[in-house]
Amino acid sequence: MSRTPCEACEELLQGYLDRALTDSEVGRAESHLDACDYCRRRYRFEESLRKYVQTTAAERMPVGLMEKLAQLRSSP
Ligand SMILES: [Zn+2]
After folding, report:
1. Model pLDDT for residues 33-75, shown as the tens digit of each residue
2. Closest CA relative to residue 29, chosen from 15, 41, 44, 47
3. How far, in Å, is the centroid of ligand 1 from the Cα of 60?
């Protein structure tokens, strides 16, 4: 039993959010987001989190928390 229903596509979603995918991978990510409720919700959450971090939190967030988030994103 895996930790999340969709662990396999985590990597794809991260790349999608980072705009780090090839065209064919983007296609795969988008069709997966179409088909998968879990990832669609996760993607929306991650995207709004990023916007929030970019717009409001960058100056107000404690440095330690920023580093924690960066570690989370770069963990395998
Ligand atoms: Zn999924």
Report:
1. 999 998 999 899 999 988 888 777 556 667 787 788 788 877 6
2. 15
3. 33
